[in-house]
Amino acid sequence: MPVTNEQLAELLVGIARSQKAIIDAVAQHLGQNGNAFRMGAVVPTLQGYANVANHHAPPTLHDLPTRILLQIQGTPRPGAQPVEDWVEQQLARIVGP
Predict the structure, then answer these.
(1) What's the DSSP call for residue 74?
(2) How far apart are CA 5 and CA 12, in angstroms?
């Protein structure tokens, strides 16, 4: 059975949310130092793996899972596109419809 881009986007976002839950648990366990852990270690590391230093490069299939996790670390802006929709668009761009 072929998997659609929409299904793959939902799967990738679900995996990223479970990874975020682990990050949140570690941050909560650290108490006051949790935010320092998140902003001083997690986010910079994710930015490195997500290849976000090159702002003009669209995500590759290799970068996409890390970029998803990076996107869900913060609170979404009001009116922002749902992350599932963004992932589906990126998948369509990378692998086709």
Answers:
(1) S
(2) 10
Pure H helices in 1-97: 5-30, 34-37, 43-49, 64-71, 83-95
Residue entry with tokens 């986007």: 9
> CA 10, CA 56: separation in Å to the nearest integer?
26
- DSSP-derived 3-state class of residue 30: helix
- Whether 1 has a pLDDT exceeding 80, the answer reads no
Per-residue pLDDT band at 87 (split at 50, 70, 90): very high
Q: pLDDT digit string (tens) for 18-71?
A: 999 999 999 999 998 888 999 999 999 999 888 887 777 888 888 899 999 999
Sign of the dihedral through C-alpha 7, 9, 10, 11? positive
Hey, what amino acid is at 65? P
Rounded Cα distance, 29 and 11, in Å: 27
